[in-house]
Amino acid sequence: MTAPRHDSDLPQERGEMLGYSLIAVLAALTLLAFRAAPADKPLVMGLYLIAWALMFLASYFLSHKTFFLRGLRWFCVNWSVPGTPKMAFFYAAVMAVMGIVSILSGMGVV
Description:
Elements (H helix, E strand, L loop, with lengths): L15 H20 L5 H22 L4 H12 L8 H20 L4
């Protein structure tokens, strides 16, 4: 018996609790950004962007685990040019860099 070669070869799990938990993390960071003091907003926005980066990265490796990560993978395949699951790496990198710059800006480094 050989191991699955690709994430789509694995059995698809519903993963409702995991999916809703990931959505709750993003919602909590969004609410935190609305309630943060103006000086803290770049820090919270940086955390928010890094959370999205991690979710796009997880969507490449773990999309079989939950509907939410499958949705991000679907976005990478159907709304990107080129339409490939590897676009998750691109989105993760862009959001991670923007998040790091935002955090550094909030700390006064940049």
